[in-house]
Design brief:
Helix 2 links the parallel strand 2 and strand 3. The protein has helices at about 25-40, 55-60, 90-95, 105-120, 140-145, 160-165, 185-195, 210-220, 240-250, 285-295, 320; strands spanning about 10-15, 45, 65, 80, 100-105, 130-135, 155, 175, 230, 255-260, 275-280, 300-305. It folds into three domains: about 10-20 and about 210-305, 3-Layer(aba) Sandwich (Cobalt-precorrin-4 Transmethylase, domain 1); about 25-105 and about 315-320, Rossmann fold (3-Layer(aba) Sandwich); about 110-195, 4-hydroxy-3-methylbut-2-enyl diphosphate reductase, catalytic domain (Cobalt-precorrin-4 Transmethylase, domain 1, 3-Layer(aba) Sandwich), CATH 3.40.1010.20. The chain has a five-stranded parallel β-sheet with strand order 10-9-11-1-12, with helices on both faces. It has a four-stranded parallel β-sheet with strand order 3-2-4-5. About 35% of the residues lie in helices and about 20% in strands.
């Protein structure tokens, strides 16, 4: 007697596009891989190269050793600085110890560093004070604030802090931002600062990077039609956390951060007919594929991708690796 395979329930999937790796993340990973190819294992990396455990574990299997500070790096060992950027004291210490180092800082983060220096220098004799819009403790913020002397910047994390911040000189003031913030939140903070300090100077071009902006626009395109949005990304990934927040604000009844498919609590899918899926800029597309494959075991899938723009940005490797 022939057995009849059970019919799987239907599930509509809306894929946000763009999603996943950005050019800065791709470049940083290539730097570590090329350093391993040229120097052999181990290659040390100060801080997680990007905020994604799957990426970190894959590089560890190839011979990368992740540390938090340079004093954990042995003499004469090669070391890579993460994509988030580092304070100026870090390469200075590497030079003092005669370490071979490669800087994998995203070029768009480096742009913010140079911007901070330009604002500071343009202030004249007293130097221009800078308000840094960002999240306390994030390595990108620590790296950016570490480009200037202590006290040269004040961190502003939200609109409430923007309303209460008291800079030393309101007539010689500028602002810069972390590259992975919520576009809408940042616009609100900047509006408060401009209202309070009409003379404040801003960046010549938007500090929030193209990839952050594009991924937030893409999740806005799927959120209103989704019963649930899954954002593939690590909890310590700022851009992934912002995608979750943006999804809920854009109309999704619920949005959940999911590091990888094996950690999915299947009960969250009860009653879900349309599932939105995106991935943070530090999450590889393999994690999206892995999730879709798991879902296919439980549902009959209908998949639609909503792509708001195409990305063709590529960043070159640093000069020591370019040849």
């Amino acid at each position: 007697m022939n057995s009849i395979a059970p019919t799987l329930p239907p599930l509509r999937i809306l894929l946000a596009g763009p999603r996943g790796f950005c050019a800065g993340v791709d470049r940083a990973i290539r730097i570590v891989e090329e350093a391993l190819r040229r120097h052999g294992a181990p290659v040390y990396v100060r801080h997680e190269i990007v905020h994604n455990r799957t990426v970190v574990e894959t590089l560890e299997e190839k011979g990368a050793v992740f540390v938090e500070e340079l004093d954990e790096v042995p003499a004469n060992a090669p070391v890579v600085f993460s994509a988030h950027g580092v304070p100026k004291s870090v390469p200075a210490e590497a030079q003092r110890r005669k370490l071979t180092y490669l800087d994998a800082t995203c070029p768009l983060v480096s742009k913010v560093h140079r911007e901070a220096e330009r604002h500071f220098a343009d202030g004249g004799k007293e130097s221009r004070h800078i308000l840094m819009i960002g999240h306390n403790g994030h390595p990108e913020v620590e790296g950016t604030m570490g480009q200037l002397p202590p006290g040269a910047m004040t961190l502003v994390q939200n609109a409430e802090e923007a309303r209460s911040v008291t800079p030393p000189d309101t007539n010689s003031l500028a602002f810069i931002t972390q590259t992975t913030l919520s576009v809408d939140d940042t616009a609100e903070i900047v509006a408060v600062l401009r209202e309070r300090f009409p003379a404040i100077q801003g960046p010549k071009h938007e500090d929030i990077c193209y990839a952050t902006t594009n991924r937030q626009s893409a999740v806005k395109a799927i959120a209103p039609d989704a019963d649930l949005v899954l954002v593939i990304g690590s909890p310590n990934s700022s851009n992934s956390q912002r995608l979750r927040e943006v999804a809920e604000r854009a109309g999704a009844p619920r949005a959940i951060l999911l590091p990888r498919a094996s950690e999915l609590d299947w009960s969250v899918l009860e009653g879900v007919r349309t599932l939105g899926i995106t991935a943070g800029a530090s999450a590889p597309e393999t994690l999206v594929d892995e999730l879709v494959a798991k879902l296919r075991d439980h549902y009959t899938l209908t998949i639609e991708e909503r792509r708001v723009t195409e990305e063709d940005v590529v960043f070159k490797l640093p000069a020591p690796l370019a040849g």
